[in-house]
Amino acid sequence: MEHSKNGGGGRPGGVGKTVGQIMEEAGLEFGDLELIDEPPGKLRQVAYTATGEGEPRRIVLLLRYDSSLFSPEREWARDLVRAAVVTADETDAAGW
Known about the structure:
This protein is an alpha+beta fold. It has helices spanning 19-26, 78-83, and strands at 2-4, 34-37, 43-50, 57-63, 86-92. The longest helix is centred in the N-terminal third of the chain and has 8 residues, at 19-26.
């Protein structure tokens, strides 16, 4: 798995941007995102599949966590997720 601080890899750079900005740049709908909460209830990452160049790759965006991203029901409002700020990203080009 590659770690990136500046995006790279033929996809929109993500660090410092909001999830919503990345969604717009990558042409993603909210339903394209996988919300990852670990531990359960604490939204820490979102993932999507990048299909632009070459083989599809799974992109995982690590989020700046604050208490607004906690949900005991594991349900997050779209506007809250879209406003979350990305602190790093990971790419898995080998498949998942």
